[in-house]
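Hello again, I could really use a second opinion on something today. I've been staring at a protein lately and its backbone has me curious. You're getting the sequence in one-letter code plus the fold written as tokens. I'd be grateful if you could look everything over and explain what you see. No rush at all, and the record is pasted right below:
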Amino acid sequence: MKLFPMPFHSLLLFVVWLLLNNSISAGHIVLATFFAITIPWLVTGMRDEHPKILKPWLAIRYVLMVMKDILTANVEVALLIIGPVKKLKPGFVAIPIDVDSDLGITILASTVSLTPGTVSAEVSKDRAWLYVHALHLENEAELIESVKQRYERPIKEIFGC
């Protein structure tokens, strides 16, 4: 096994230990080094391997698109809230998901929750459905298609899952 199986975490542990103790004495440096080597070494077997980002430029484009969607949805939700409450049609939708990695499902559910007006409520136990609550649901099929094409498809491409 490597001496530093998680080098970034080791460095972080070393620095944080010294900062917490507000000291760079020899004893604290030795203790920080011990923790920086021992803790990552002990927990390395507990880590889950996440899918690699296969298309980093698409990932950057995805983040920018989500940021734009968040801004647009904020305006749409503000207009809905300002208007009469009677016009709101809240509802739940079950969206079939094809992403099979935990990270991909988490990113999809988080993206849906980040865009105002929708919240990811639950992922089914078989990981085949994402249940989403929409503040204003006019067309269920349109919402499903939008989430699948706009968010799920790029996630599948980015991570190859």
